[in-house]
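QUALITY CONTROL LOG
STEP: pairwise intake check
CHECKER ROLE: data steward
CRITERIA: each record must contain a sequence immediately followed by its structure tokens, with no blank fields

ENTRY 1 OF 2
RESULT FIELD BELOW
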Amino acid sequence: MSSHRVLGGLLAHSFRRTILNNRRWFPGVLALLMFATSLYAAGAVRGKVLGPDNLPLSGVLVELRNEVTGFKQQTVTGADGSFTFFNIPNNPYTIHVDVQGFTPVQQGVDVHSAVPVETTIKLVVARLSESINVSATASVASLETDSTQSHVDIDKSYIAKAPAAVASRAMEQIVTSTPGFAKDENGRFHFQGAHSQSEYVIDGQTISDQTGVTFSNSIDPGIAQGIEIIYGNVPAEFGEKVGAVINLTTKSGLGGGAPKADAYVGVSKFSTAEAGVSVGGGSQTFGYFGSVNGSKSDRFLDPVNPDNLHNHGDTFRGFLRLDRQSGDAKNSFRFTALAGSTHRDVPNTYTQEAAGQDQRVRSNDENINAGWQRIFSQAAVLEIGAFGRFSKFHLDPSSNDTPVSATSDRTLNNYGLTPSISWTNSNHEVKAGLNLKRYPIREHFTFGITDPGLNDPRSDGFNPNLAPYDLTRGGTEFAFDARRTGSYDAAYLQDNMKWNNLTANLGVRYGNNNLPVKETAFEPRVGVGYYVQSTKTVFRASYNRVLYTPEFENILLSSSEAAAKLVPPEVAASRELGGGELLVHSERQNAWDFGIQQAVGSKLRVDLDYWKRKSKFAGDQDQFENTGVVFPLAFTSGDYNGWNVRFDLARTAGLRGFASVGHTRAVYVPPLAGGLFLDQGALDTITGGPFLIDHDQKLQAQGSLIYDIGQSGFWAGTSVRYDSGLVTDTDPATLLQDPDNAFAAPFVVVHSGTPLDPNRIKSRTIVDFSIGADLQKYRVPLSLQADLLNATNEKGLYNIQSVFGGTHVVPPRMLAVRLRYTY
């Protein structure tokens, strides 16, 4: 059977199941998709190559490059001398044309929006060995002289070589190479002091619920043409959770020619294995790209102890993108589908393993978006996008669960429209649009206490509100069922204005969220940048006001009257409503960023940022007894600040790489302002004064270098990650008395223990080495890669008895090997 049929069959099965499971309102979503166009995340570069007589030259090889990110794409001019590069991520690029007998040309272009960039390249007859650099040419260091954003770009060339035990589950590992990201367990991360207020944007579809494997299914980075991570001065077109916007441009077959396919397999320690296949190709008017992959492992999640108990899992993902473009290139249609499924164990503590606990989780998600793009002129483009996301999570209990037995069965779906129009001229890039989104949510949750010591009436931490659900003392299970459809609607207008070396980005967004309570906000987004050409320096500063929607996982329960009746009396007494229902509000944040981008020679680019955030209703989450079920929380306020540094090295004598360094200080201010919080052991923290949240980390640093050995196709690389250690509320003496966490005692660095000088987790440095070979130049359609992960076998923990996450162990030394066959 062909790979085309395998791919189509697997995706068709997944979406048939989606339609059946959501048939109550799926027809409405389908109608939106039939109507819709798409919010594209990429642009295009079009032009002509002319000879000295101004006549078009056909058959000329044209190459588009960004030496910093590693982006490279080639095409050949048609009979009329024209060329088009499709699906180009926003960035500065250089067009290279080198034709025998003519002077080589390098011409700079900037892709900033969906409006195609038009250019003409005129060749002249070579004299001696001269070359031409057009005045618009960008330096190799690719300074972004007209951008006010702080962002990092990651190209598919780095993604393909990123070290990982399972390449298709490495998205979060790649994202955290950006400065300011503090790593936590199972791909979770905290960015610039925030909890998880970040979002993925996949070909214009915003995914703002949590996609980590604990909650849903990780996104396969292999589908990405490029990833842009915006973390300062986020444009007004983005909303919901914009602490960091992870903007993916997916791979497309448009203009790709004959079908190209590859298949790969990979193996690693803990019976870890993965396999996948992809295929893509197309003409100037039609393109297709699709992939399917799956993996399994006996160390599927980061375990809760070094013995890795009860931790098997397997996952599947599929992706499909179809593009259709009219012959005059004025109308473009696109359909994208992304589906995933995970079956896994819930890792056990020593006590749970001895009791025979066997909890399991099933999660599924399907994402679809479709669109049409209309180019009215070289200056105006209309886009209207429609999308749907269907996400399910199910926790199955077992007969021997301890200290609680719990069931969770929830759906978190959304669908909507994203129309926009863009207009450009020499001084302005204007964009206006709408985001119209609906959230049908259903939640079912039950629990009962199965350990008589968990809520012992004789203990200091006894919570009388949990006593009715103590199954060891004649209680019954707590049960909660609810469903609701929320909405998020927004309108925005932004203009990127340029005047000589000055750039100003002026934008405003109006957001309206009604889940769980109606809240609105005007969100100005203002940034300025100035380029000093003599020193190759870009200065930038910005102010953003943003409205973060809450975490929607279990939002109905967390904001319910039933939740208010469960919390400890001390928590209820601290609440503004005197123990009554308290809804989880949207976080409101004021954000300031100040940055410098500096070229050092022609090969090195340096970005420095200082940032500050002040928030009302600072968001976080509370994990329920090691089940992986979390409840969203809100504290009264938050105050975060820090700095980031990023070094990007363009290819130099075969060497290329980056280094990211960041510092984060994150202070949360009680009392608890919303949500379900059951942990008796942390009452002093959440009812006292300001405290450092476990997003706070003094220093995180990551670097990577890749060396291509001449033109041989062989390469070697290394990456290093340093984390100085997150906050922990526990201490060695307490841990030694806990049979499930005594192993963690040596990993606590004791401080004064005050709220603003808490104990820390021991710092760790993880070193990876990689080697690889691309044998296609030897007419062997294979590539090989071997990664030695955590080469020094560093022992470490992400967190220890965190109120918000628990305890989790970093991976040990592992050897991962992948083989890829291209045909």
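ENTRY 2 OF 2
RESULT FIELD BELOW
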Amino acid sequence: MTAWPRRWLMLTGLLVLSSASWALGGGQAAAGTRASQPAGSSAWTVYHRDADGSGVAGPVATVDTATRAWTSPALDGELYGEPLVSSGLVYVATENDSVYALSAATGAVVWSAQLGDPVPSADLPCGDIKPTVGITGTPVIDQSRGEIFVVADELVHGQPEHVFTGLATASGKVEVTQDVDPAGATPAALLQRTGLALDDGRVVFGMGGNDGDCAAYRGRLIAVPETGGTPKMFTVDAAADESQGAIWMGGAAPVVDSSGDVWASTGNGSVDSASHAYDNSDSVLELSPSLNLLQFFAPTNWATNNSEDLDMSAAPALLPDGQVILIGKSRIAYLLNRAHLGGIGGQQATLGSACSQDVDGGVAVQGTTVYLPCTSGITAVQAAKSPAALRLRWSSGTGGGPPIVAAGLVWTIGRNGVLYGLDPATGSVRQQASIGAPANHFSTPSVADGLLLAPSADQVVAFAAPATAPAQASHDSSQPTAGGGGLSDGAIVGLSAVGGLAVIGGMAWLVRRRRTNVTN
């Protein structure tokens, strides 16, 4: 064998390995740094399905709302969080400090674990969760660890305490537990309301005050190692003469982008004069994985908003074109440049009166359209980039609970106990089903493992939602996508393999031609 064929074989091998490595790992560089979107439609492991909080389900053919697939037993407390799904089990947490794993096939309880005594509402200075406060924020699941994480408000030695706990998803066995109240804080004045997210081996969540903003507290973003240990922390209204600035987002989880940066909106702070230094309130913040502030946006009237309790109360919507939509209780939607939020008054465009009432919770993002959780009913807003603009597509007056997208419809739960499926083009009702009144107006459904799961006050109601066959999903333009299009993981792998074989084949032809020319 000559030197050239040997080199060619070595090069071919490297190309094969490189193609395989790129196909299996390319586009997945952020895996392990955040709660990546579950493959297919078999899991829903974080609030609104993925780290971006898009709220868009995997391939689903239809949702059968004519009959229930099952209804869970009545659980031991009210449900404020979203149901999660992993490995054939449905997970929910209650205000009685209990975590339940239900069979996805029948709704029966597979295991349950009560983590401690919940805090009686009467022991808190204010609030609207009754009769006890326990686990309020949606948990998060790390499938690689087989662990579900929660933050529970517990009565410890007669005093409220916020306890971070990790449990084995298969059995409910407690794997890690620790107090996560900030040093110097008054735990009774704090409410852990946001959903939990994963970022680079840490669990990230926000803290704010109880309803009514009574007692002294400061908004916090906290990142705790999954194995336990010293948390990272960012504090809003951190100066000695400041307070409040809750990070609560209507129950939505902090958004984690592909770089591992954390995005969160903040509530009203105590500063009500623009002559005072800005306090990071009434804003959207981008922070590094170690929770260092990178950039922010706040409206020019942030101090007035603070004085009128007009906080940012919805999750920031990260659009695939590099824009961001932010909205709060002022009901004004702001369009921002994701690469340059612009600080105070840095918006690209605004849309006044996007909602007729408060907007609270997680959004659903489909391309450049964002479905907003207006308590008066779901509203659709669309962004344009050149020139930058926002337009109201429709306002439904229906539902109001944080929306998700599945089977070509926008799904929301109303305070009247009805699950609605809305037409994404018009907002008109296409499907509906009674599920029983929810405990609060932040209830949001999830879709995975062939089910749409809707929480009522203390039960989970399931409807059949079979997944679309892969061949159909890839050609059915009516099915929504999280980013307005793009290749699936399987398609990327397939194309990578084909590309690798094409390169190898081309080199083989060149070598054969070279050897033929030399011989001739």
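INTAKE CHECK: passed for both entries
DESCRIPTIVE NOTE, ENTRY 2: Residues 451 and 464 are 5 Å apart (CA to CA).
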